[in-house]
Each structure stands twice: as C-alpha cells, then as structure tokens.
C-alpha cells in the first residue's frame, strides 16, 4: 500500500521487466507476461533474452514444457499428422503422403517430397505399403524459407532398414539404400558437422559427400568410412543384476565436435512377459565418444566431460546447446526421453531423465510435483522441440484472445517467488485488481533485506535501488528491528513504527533513563541503541522489549520495557554485565555476550503482569574452545580490531567474530549478488569512524566455506551513498504482506 498508491502498472521499468523475463525459462510464462499491456509488449521487443527451455513434442498437437510440466496445445492442420521435429519446425505428413515442415508459431511452411513413396521405391515391392516409418531430419544451417534450404532425411522401419534422402529446394535430388553402397549395415543416425553430413552404422562413422555439379540437384557420389573401431565394450557402469544391456547410439554435433552418445538400457532377463520383453526396461548410464576427424587415426576417443554443454538426445532429433545460455539447463548433462521403437504404447516419460556426466547419476526429467500423466502419443516417438522466443509469432499464436488480467495465479506466484526485491513484487501486484487478489493467495519467501540509512531512505540489497519513505515530521531514526523503525521524537519520546502499516508502539523516554544512570557521561557524545525482542512485535500487553543504550565511550545502560513503561533499568558499568558486547533472545531467554567470550543468561521474571524484572544473572560459558578452530592468518603490518555479534540462528546461539584491518584491503569478487546465499554472513559498515563516509565502504558477504568476501552489491547497481548522519546503517526486514 505504501509504495504503490501512486504507481501505474504500465510504468514498470524496462530493466525490471527484463529481469523478470530473463528468469523465466518457460516460453509460455514469457508470453503471458508480455501480454499484460502495450507498454510491456513494446519494451519486451527491445530486450535481449536467453532462449526459452526446450519442450517435448508429443506429436499429437501437444507440447510438454520441461521447465514447469505445463502442457501446451497448438492444433495441427486438419489433414496432418506429426512425425517429428527439428529445432522449432514440425515434420508433418498428410493423407496423400505429402510431407512438409511447419513453424507452429508463424505457420510458415516448407514443402518436402513424398518421402514414404521414396522409401517404398528404394526398398522395392517386398515391403508392405503399411510399414511404419520413423524419420530423422538433419540440416547444415537453421531452417528458413530461402531457396537454398538443404535437408537430409533418414528413414527407418522397426527393423532398422534405412533409406537416406537428400532434399534441396523442396525436391528430392538423391536417395539411396545401403545394398547399393559398400556398407553391410544400416545407418542408425545422421548429423551435420562443419557443413558435412555424417552417418553412424554399428559404431562406424561415414562421411556422405554431396556434389552440386548439377545445379539445384545435390547428389551423393561417395560414401566413405572414416572411423572403423567400435567403442570399447567395457561400460562405465555394470548392467543391473538380472538384466541384459541393450545400447542405442545418437550422433550429435557439439561445439565443433562430433559425438557418438551411447545409451545403455537394462532389460529385465528373463522377461516377466514374453509378449513384451522390453517392458520395465530402463536407462542406467551413458557413454560418450568423440570422432577423431583431424589426425586420421580412424578412432573414437572416450569423452569424460561435455564442458558447459547440455545434450538433448532423441531418435527424431538431437541437439547440443550451451547451458549458460538457457535458464535452468544443467551443464555437462544429457537429457533423454523414452524413444524406444518397442515401447510406443508407453508413457513417453516412462524412461526419461537427466544423466550427469560428472556423477553418473540420473535425475528425473521433471519433478514429481510438476510431471503430468501422459498417454501414448500414437505415431512415432516424442521429440525435442526448441521454441524460438520470436516475439511477434509467439504473441499471434498464443495470446490473440488472452486478457492480461487472466494470468494464472500459479504463474503469478512463480514470478513473484523469483523476485527477491520487495519493490519489484509490489510493482508487479499493482498491475490490476485480479493480480492483487491472487497475490494474497500465494505463499512467498521473504524478500531480501534492506539497509535502513536512518534518514528515511532504504537500500535494497537485491538490486541497489533506493527507496524513500518519509519519517514523521518530528522523528529521527536511530535503528530498526525486523520491520519496525526505532524513532526518537522532538519531545524526548521514543517509539517503534511499522514502516508499511504505520502502526506505532510507544517506548519510555530512554534518554531520561540514560541520564539517570550515567549523569556523569560526557553529553557531547551521541547515543546509540540496540533492541532485542523475544518474539515478533505486536500490540499485546505482554510485549517485551530490551534496549541497550550506549555512547562512543562504550558506556552503557540496559532497560527492560513493557511498552510504554520501563520496568527495570541499570548501568552496565560497575555491574556483573560490565564489558557487555552484544545480546539477543533465544527461546524467551536473554543472553549477553561479555568480553573475553563469556556468555551470561539473564532470567526475566514476568510473573507480575506489567512489571517484568531480571531475577537472576548467571555465567554459563566462561571461555572459548579453540581446539577445533584453525588460526586465521592476517596480512603483516596491519592492526586488527575484533568486533563481536551474538546471533540466534536455527535454534542455536552463535558468536560471530568480525576481524577488521585498519587499512583497506582487496576483496576477491567471485560471485553474483542479489540472491540470498546460504552459509554466508552479510555485513555493513556499522562502526564508528572519525570522518563518516559511504556506509557501504566496508560491507560485503563472507562465505563460510571458502573464506572469500564478495561485494554486498555489484558495481553496476551499487549507488553512491552519503553519510547517514545519526547512527549507523541497520538491517531492515520488510514483511511481504499483499494488501
């Protein structure tokens, strides 16, 4: 409410729109987001986005989005059946044996010859006209509608008899079967690499040279075996017990290399069903080999790593892509689905997964909570489909009848969940009334904290944005606790104010309490405050607040409050608590960290309502166990200053020691900011300096695992901040309450 009353949903900044779109691996999610309004559509056209995550083409006009398990329906032409795909083109046949490639978004069509008739012409009359055929298409360049488009088609029947057809300008310029060639076996797969066509047959690799001596009619005058040695029979993983191993190869061009990807499938033996011996067969491993195309060794070389590549393998189409360019893709992994000729009546996800080359572990292709129940797809096998994020085509195909207000609640939740910045979430929910209503139903993780700069401005750690939220006219901010600001007023009063709801909790006049206990303290030193609460603040009469009041001379007073009354207070110096460093609550008990790493527990008696008192003080830790701690080394010729923090974490009590050098030292910047990092300590400059400067001058994220400090904000997002005046910056944890 506080931030969006004057905002227009159409005014979402283009950089924020780009941030959201880049984090959506699903094309459908991107399309829905851009369908919100004309400004969003216009701005989206100016953004450079990574490709969306691939789909599975189920061949019946439906597509399965791998990133979220959503099913998309894009009807085929009335007389067409789908038998495969290549990149973002569908391979279609019609009732008259006509063949074509169609882009389902733009509806552009590329005619092909009648391939089934070519098959039967090459194989002769011995083959039934009803023979079920499977098609694998390969192209040297991305397909378009130019007159120079070249397509190679491998046709197989269930017994793996093969015919290759070369198509140029929509005409079959050559076709052949293998008894005419010096080859005793059939081709299992084909692929282009470096503009040349290669074919795989029983572990042997062939080049299929094409000649264009006859204009517009490329021919295949020569087929040559260039790799003869079949990969070793020793597998990286043994076949599961009571199974026999069946292999299937895929030929994939990857980063300039030609790879033979061998899929190892365990088939139960003896079979439980003699009529279906491949029932319950499962992939258990992969092996990858690279063809030596340069040294002339005529060998396959074992490949242990794919680098940053992710392979998507299938009998209809295989592709290698850079995982860094696709949101959600895992590098050094092989994505596969069930494409076994003998299991065409099964769920296409029954043997699908992601094989990790480094660990040898197979994980599900989709999470159980997103995987739909799929039925047999009919003709052919599922195939990979790589939708291009072409703005105009996608919008025409998917959102002509869509209303931006109809964005599905689960998609809205997905977008909101991926925004660590509260301001970004508020702007997105401000789009329209349905979005605001649906947002209330979405359980969201807390937004990333802000830094309160004590002058009514707040720094968002996730993106470096500055938010201005004015304080009351008579108030100054000294610190914060959770999502409440600690304010002092001109009349000497103190209060806690919720920045968003404006709810206020009155506190006693802490300066008066300070003067009562430390009347002799030098008045020229400003006072600083640290607050702790045993439970989240509310307006109940039993609310408890403990305040530590201190100055730069380390003189301190402790005050127990049951707002708005101070029920007990005392001077720390001269008491058991002298040397107090920090304090916090754990399980309703107050703990105090003392010099020399001593830990005290202060029991607070709340039996008398409205008058809680400290009933006992006990030292429970009087030394630090250094036996398991490696001594930390520091640069020579530096003076080291240590600061101590007491933090409740996951039901435990932690003492965090911060080592400061009294001279600037270089950080090692190795990791992106903007997303919460586990096992890390976030810190800012919160100690006194004679000449106050940028409050980010000594801030960062310390990684407990590697000991490296990274910047709190990236250079590109870090603003130039001025001294905040009174006090030091403080963490502020905004609550994401959709109102």
Tell me about this structure.
The protein is mainly β and 739 residues long. Among the domains are: 9-48 and 392-439, no CATH class; 55-388, no CATH class. It has a five-stranded mixed β-sheet, with no helix packed on it. It is elongated, with a radius of gyration of 34 Å. Mean pLDDT is 77; it is low at 1-7, 179-183, 395-402 and 662-674.
Write the SSE topology.
Elements (H helix, E strand, L loop, with lengths): L13 H9 L4 H8 L3 H7 L10 E3 L4 E4 L5 E3 L6 E7 L2 E6 L4 E4 L6 E4 L2 H9 L10 E5 L11 E7 L5 E7 L2 E7 L11 E5 L2 E6 L2 E8 L7 E9 L15 E12 L2 E12 L13 E10 L8 E4 L5 E4 L6 E4 L10 E4 L16 E4 L5 E2 L19 E3 L5 H8 L10 H9 L4 H8 L3 H7 L10 E3 L4 E4 L5 E3 L6 E7 L2 E6 L4 E5 L5 E4 L2 H8 L10 E5 L12 E6 L5 E7 L2 E7 L8 E7 L2 E6 L3 E8 L7 E9 L18 E10 L2 E10 L18 E4 L16 E4 L5 E2 L19 E3 L7
Parallel strand pairs: 20-22
Antiparallel strand pairs: 1-2, 1-25, 2-3, 4-5, 5-6, 6-7, 8-9, 9-10, 10-11, 12-13, 13-14, 14-15, 16-17, 17-18, 18-19, 20-21, 22-23, 23-24, 26-27, 26-46, 27-28, 29-30, 30-31, 31-32, 33-34, 34-35, 35-36, 37-38, 38-39, 39-40, 41-42, 43-44, 44-45
Secondary structural class:
mainly beta
Helix content: under 10%
The rounded distance between the terminal residues' Cα atoms is 6 Å
The total beta strand count reads 46
How large a portion of the residues is in β-strands, by DSSP E? 35-45%
What is the 3D form?
elongated
Count the DSSP helices. 9
Output mean pLDDT: 77
The parts where pLDDT drops under 50 for at least 5 residues are 1-7, 179-183, 395-402, 662-674
* Order of strands, widest sheet: 21-20-22-23-24
For the report, how would you describe the main beta sheet?
5 strands, mixed
What is the C-alpha radius of gyration, as a whole number of Å? 34 Å
């Amino acid at each position: 409410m506080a931030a969006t009353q004057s905002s227009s949903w159409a005014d979402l900044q283009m950089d924020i729109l780009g941030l959201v779109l880049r984090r959506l691996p699903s094309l459908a999610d991107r399309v829905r987001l851009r369908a919100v309004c004309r400004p969003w559509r216009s701005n989206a056209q100016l953004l450079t986005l990574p490709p969306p995550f691939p789909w599975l083409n189920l061949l019946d006009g439906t597509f399965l989005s791998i990133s979220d398990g959503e099913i998309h329906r894009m009807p085929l032409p009335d007389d067409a059946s789908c038998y495969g795909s290549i990149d973002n083109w569908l391979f279609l046949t019609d009732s008259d044996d006509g063949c074509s490639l169609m882009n389902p978004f733009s509806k552009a069509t590329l005619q092909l010859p009648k391939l089934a008739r070519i098959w039967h012409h090459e194989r002769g009359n011995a083959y039934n006209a009803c023979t079920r055929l499977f098609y694998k298409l390969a192209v040297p360049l991305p397909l378009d509608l130019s007159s120079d488009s070249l397509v190679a088609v491998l046709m197989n029947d269930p017994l793996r008899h093969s015919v290759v057809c070369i198509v140029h300008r929509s005409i079959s310029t050559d076709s052949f079967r293998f008894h005419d060639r010096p080859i005793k076996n059939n081709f299992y797969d084909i692929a282009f690499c470096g503009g040349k066509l290669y074919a795989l047959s029983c572990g042997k690799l062939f080049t299929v040279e094409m000649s264009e001596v006859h204009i517009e009619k490329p021919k295949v005058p020569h087929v040559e075996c260039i790799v003869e040695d079949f990969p070793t029979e020793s597998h990286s993983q043994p076949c599961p017990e009571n199974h026999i191993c069946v292999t299937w190869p895929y030929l994939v061009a990857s980063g300039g290399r030609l790879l033979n990807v061998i899929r190892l499938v365990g088939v139960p033996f003896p079979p439980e069903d003699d009529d279906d011996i491949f029932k319950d067969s499962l992939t258990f491993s992969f092996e990858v080999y690279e063809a030596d195309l340069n040294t002339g060794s005529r060998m396959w070389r074992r490949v242990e790593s794919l680098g940053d590549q992710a392979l998507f393998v299938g009998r209809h189409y295989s592709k290698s892509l850079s995982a860094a360019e696709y949101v959600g893709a895992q590098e050094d992994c092989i994505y596969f689905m069930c494409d076994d000729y003998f299991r065409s009546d099964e769920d296409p996800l029954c043997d699908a997964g992601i094989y990790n080359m480094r660990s040898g572990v197979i994980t599900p292709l989709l999470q159980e909570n997103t995987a739909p129940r799929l039925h047999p797809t009919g003709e052919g096998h599922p195939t990979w489909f790589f939708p291009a994020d072409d703005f105009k085509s996608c919008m025409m195909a998917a959102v002509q009848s869509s209303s931006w207000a109809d964005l599905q609640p689960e998609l809205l939740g997905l977008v909101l969940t991926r925004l660590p910045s509260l301001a970004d979430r508020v702007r997105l929910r401000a789009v329209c009334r349905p979005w605001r209503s649906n947002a209330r139903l979405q359980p969201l993780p807390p937004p990333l904290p802000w830094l309160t700069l004590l002058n009514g401005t707040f720094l968002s750690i996730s993106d470096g944005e500055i938010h201005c939220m004015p304080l009351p006219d008579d108030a100054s901010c000294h610190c914060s606790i959770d999502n409440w600001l600690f304010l002092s007023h001109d009349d000497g009063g103190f209060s806690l104010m919720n920045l968003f709801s404006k709810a206020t909790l009155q506190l006693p006049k802490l300066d008066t309490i300070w003067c009562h206990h430390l009347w002799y303290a030098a008045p020229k030193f400003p006072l600083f405050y640290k607050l702790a609460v045993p439970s989240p603040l509310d307006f109940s009469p039993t609310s408890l607040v403990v305040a530590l009041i201190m100055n730069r001379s380390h003189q301190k007073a402790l005050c127990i409050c049951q707002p708005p009354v101070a029920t007990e207070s005392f001077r720390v110096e001269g008491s058991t608590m002298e040397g107090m460093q920090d304090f916090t609550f754990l399980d309703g008990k107050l703990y105090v960290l003392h010099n020399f790493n001593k830990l005290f527990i202060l029991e607070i008696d709340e039996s008398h309502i409205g008058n809680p008192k400290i009933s006992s003080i006990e030292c429970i830790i009087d030394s630090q166990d250094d036996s398991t701690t490696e001594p930390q080394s520091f640069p020579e010729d530096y003076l080291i200053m240590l600061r101590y923090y007491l933090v409740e974490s996951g039901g435990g009590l932690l003492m965090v020691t911060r080592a400061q050098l009294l001279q600037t030292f270089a950080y090692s910047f190795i990791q992106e900011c903007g997303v919460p990092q586990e096992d890390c300590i976030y810190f800012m400059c919160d100690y006194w300096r004679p000449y106050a400067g940028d409050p980010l001058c000594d801030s960062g994220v310390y990684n407990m695992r590697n000991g490296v400090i990274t910047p709190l904000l990236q250079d590109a997002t870090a603003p130039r901040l001025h001294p905040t005046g009174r006090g030091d910056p403080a963490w502020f944890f905004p609550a994401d309450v959709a109102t």
